[in-house]
Structure formats: structure tokens, C-alpha cells
Amino acid sequence: MKVLNLFLICFIVANCVAFGQLNDEMKIRQLEKHWTELLDKGDTTSLLEIWSENYVVNNPNGKIVTPKEIVALMKSGHKFPAVERIIEKITFNQDIAIVMGKELQQPGSMTPNHDDWMPRRFTNVWIKTKEGWKLAARQSTQVVSQ
């Protein structure tokens, strides 16, 4: 009987952990979509709420930038090109979520044809805080065909 009880407790704990991680994964997927929409709208106030205090980006041009620089760029009238993000993997390590995948960035010609969009690889790092998930770091690199 004790073995059966121990088995049931382990089963319940494992299910709770798996369910919690599934909820976190759904939340991260929602946040990935949401912060991209905020970037498209130029909503710097809401972006600053999603980004962690020490958010840092290694952008496709190889420059490391901070929220202060990104917000200044946006307030100067810069509009980021449309991006379609395809999440390939989300990995959780305690209170850290690492999101990896590919992106397609609309070129300057603004063509709606996705075949002409520029491919990139990305990594986004989210941290779980008391206030919820915050985007802590991002890296994006344009894929160069050989």
C-alpha cells in the first residue's frame, strides 16, 4: 500500500510540473507574438514593461544595443520592418526560457511575397520575475546563403 501511495504522489507531482511547464510555454509563445506586435506599433511604453531592466540585444548588424538606444531610435521615427517569427524550440531551465528559431524579415522593398523576405536565426531569453516573464536578451543573425 505504501508503494502505491508513493507512486501516486510521484505521478501527481510529475503531472503538476509538466502542466506548469506547458502553461509557461503557452505564455512564452503569447509573449513572443505580443512583443513583436508592440514593436510593429512602436509602443515603447509597453515594450519597456515587457523588457527586463537590463535587456540587451545583439542585432543582425552585429551591434549590441539597450532599451535606451532602441527607444531613442523608435522615437526618432524609425519603424522596424515586419518580421514573421517561427519558434522551433523553447527550453526551460529553472526560471529561464530560451526561445530559438527562424525569422523572416520584410525587405526594404516591402514586398508581401514571403519568398523574398530575408531569413534570420534568433535566440530570445526570457526570465521569470515576480511581475511575470520579462525578455532579458535577444540575438538575431541574418542567414547568408553560400
From TrEMBL:
Tell me the ranges covered by the DUF4440 domain, including all copies: 28-135
* Stored Gene3D superfamilies: 3.10.450.50
Query: Carries keyword Cell cycle?
Result: no
Q: Which UniProt keywords apply?
A: Signal
Q: Does the keyword Signal apply?
A: yes
Point out the signal peptide segment: 1-20
Q: What is the lineage of its organism?
A: Bacteria, Pseudomonadati, Bacteroidota, Bacteroidia, Marinilabiliales
Species in which this protein is naturally found: Draconibacterium aestuarii
Q: What is this protein called?
A: Nuclear transport factor 2 family protein
